[in-house]
Design brief:
This protein is α+β, with helices and mostly antiparallel strands and 157 residues long. It has two helices and ten strands. Strands 1, 2, 3, 4, 5, 6, 7, 8, 9 and 10 form a ten-stranded mixed β-sheet that branches.
Length: 157
């Protein structure tokens, strides 16, 4: 008699056998496998993930409704982004605080392309003409792990 764990969990051997059985009858479609490989290439092992932070509302300023402000933070860095759309494309103007230094590089990634910039001495950078959809900003600093914002979806307005 086989004893099942009381927590409702499957044992590893049974799970692996079920997966092998299922794989033989229902192959993974090519586009699903290609998408999985593409997603795997986007990972950054060892990178700190900068999570969204609240952006204080500016007082006394009227909003035009065009730009969208985002803030991310991790590992002692804050990444501020001003997201604007024009003509169906996305423009990003950003600032890393404190400035990451002379040898730093900022990479704005989408699932289909990446744009690399050298930030100014004050930590500012810009990328224009990005396709709408998912993006992540990565700050590469010498002799430190990279800091990557969580993936965020942007849409033209």
């Amino acid at each position: 008699m086989t004893r099942r764990p009381s927590s409702g969990a499957f044992d590893d051997a049974a799970l692996i056998a079920a997966l092998r059985l299922a794989a033989g009858h229902d192959p993974v479609p090519d586009e699903v496998a290609a998408t999985a490989r593409a997603a795997f290439r986007l990972r950054l092992p060892g990178a700190a993930t900068a999570l969204p932070l609240p952006v204080p509302a500016a007082s006394g300023i009227r909003s035009t409704g065009r730009a969208h402000l985002l803030r991310f933070g991790a590992d002692g860095l804050t990444v501020d982004l001003d997201v604007d759309s024009s003509g169906g494309l996305i423009d990003l103007a950003g600032r890393i605080c404190p400035p990451p230094g002379a040898d730093a590089r900022v990479e704005v990634r989408t699932p289909c392309r990446a744009e690399s910039r050298t930030p100014s001495p004050t930590g500012q950078f810009a990328v224009v003409g990005l396709p709408p959809g998912w993006f992540s900003v990565v700050c590469h600093r010498p002799e430190r792990p990279p800091v990557a914002t969580s993936w965020t979806r942007i849409r033209p307005e």
